[in-house]
């Protein structure tokens, strides 16, 4: 195991599971929130970053930055059930629970481009919709504006 930290996490309140990405080790660790014990490890990711858990679909969407994709897992069996292609250096994301859309940041400085992308992904269909090209090579995070249908980049 490499030294590193947990990059992002998401929770399954009903199932009492906490999903944590161990980016440096290419893992997603699942902990039982009642016992605080490690109950499962999802392996063979390159650099897992942010995630979205959809309890209604029993799916976990993991942004795997070095693989330039979202890996989709069945959270009953933990089997890999899909891939959604993204641009180089996919990292942070914001999720809109009302529309079930993920907004994922990629490109930019690490991709050696003068611009970044925000890819819009339908978690219901497990597919990418459009991409928005942003004229900056450094887009670190996104936030959704709950009062309007827009997102804000930082």
The number of distinct β-strands equals 14
CATH class: Mainly Beta
Q: Walk across the major sheet and give the strand order.
A: 1-2-3-4
- Could you give the order of the helices and strands? EEEEEEEEEEEEEE
Taking Cα atoms only, what radius of gyration do you get, to the nearest Å?
15 Å
How much strand?
over 45%
Largest sheet: 4 strands, antiparallel
- Percentage of helical residues? under 10%
- The CATH topology is Methylamine Dehydrogenase, Chain H
What is the molecular shape?
Answer: globular
Residue ranges: pLDDT <50 for 5 or more in a row?
Answer: none
Query: How many domain regions?
Result: 1
| CATH architecture label | 7 Propeller
Tell me the name of the CATH homologous superfamily: YVTN repeat-like/Quinoprotein amine dehydrogenase
Separate helix tally: 0
Structural class: mainly beta
- Rounded mean pLDDT is 92
Straight-line N-to-C gap: 32 Å
